Structures are given as structure tokens and as C-alpha cells.
Amino acid sequence: xxxxxxxxxxxxxxxxxxxxxxxxxxxxxxxxxxxxxxxxxxxxxxxxxxxxxxxxxxxxxxxxxxxxxxxxxxxxxxxxxxxxxxxxxxxxxxxxxxxxxxxxxxxxxxxxxxxxxxxxxxxxxxxxxxxxxxxxxxxxxxxxxxxxxxxxxxxxxxxxxxxxxxxxxxxxxxxxxxxxxxxxxxxxxxxxxxxxxxxxxxxxxxxxxxxxxxx
Length: 215
What we know:
6 strands
């Protein structure tokens, strides 16, 4: 075979091999993509289904005055701006929850667990905190006028610029709590554990049990 004929035959074989490979690749099956059901896709994008407790949706700005939320598990829930006036939150678990700017006037928080909750600018007027755990809560600028604290744990709570006009503090743990620039007018302090508690620049007009060295 002449060199020219050999070269022609070799090129033809290479071309045939390339065409065969291309045909096999084109014929190879393409792995199918599994479609995600519409409901699962929506759930993934919007998060878990919202919690509803005794007819009260647990989300920001919910409107549930007088709701029965006894023993409810509300750990870490966002209830910012919620209307929970007169709600029964006895023994509810609100650890780490967000109650900022919520309305809890007259709410019953007896035995509630609120450690590390955030409730700045919240209305707690006339609320009951009997045996409530408020350790390390953020309660700045909230209104507790007329509220009752009895046997509650407020250790390391931040209560700066809060109002406690006419509030009653009886037998509470106030260790390391911060009442800086708080309004304690007409409040009652009796039998509380006060150690490293700060009352700097707080108003204490007609406060019963407030000590001169607290200022």
C-alpha cells in the first residue's frame, strides 16, 4: 500500500470512530430530575406551618386578647407587636421568645418561663409575675405600672428606663438586675434579694422599701 493510500485509510477510520462515539453519546439516556411536589416546595420556601394554640396564631402582630395559652410551648417564637391583653400564660414556656412592643396588659404569667426573652417597649401594665422566671430578660423601656412580682426570678434582667409606677415586688430574686433610670414611683419593695442590683438614676418618689443608697 502506498503512503498516500495508507494515510487516506487511516483518516477514514478515525472519522468513523468519531462518528460512532458521537452517536453513542447522543443515544445515552439523560438522568431524569425528580420534580419537587408543589406543597413541599412552598413549605420549604415559607418555613414550617405556623403554630396555632387554642385558636391563637403564633406570629408577629397576632390579635389574641384573652387567649388561653396555659402551658404553651412558645420557645423562641416571634410575638413582636402581638395583642395578648388579658391572656392566660400560666406556666407557658417563652424562653428566648420575642415579645417586643407587644400588649400584655393584665396578662397572667404565673410560673411562666421567660429566661432570655426580649420584651423591650412592651405593655405589661397590671400583669402578674408570680414565680415567673425572668432571668436575663431584656425588658428595657417597658411599662410594668401596677404589675405584681412575687417570688419571681429577675436575676440579671435588664429593666433600664422601664416604668414600675405602683408595681409590687415581694420576695423576688433581683440579684444583678439593672433598674437604671427606671420609674419606681409608688412602688413597693419587700423581702427581695438585692445584691449587685443597679438602681442608678431611678425615680423613687413615694416608693415603699426603696433604700436611699440604691440611687
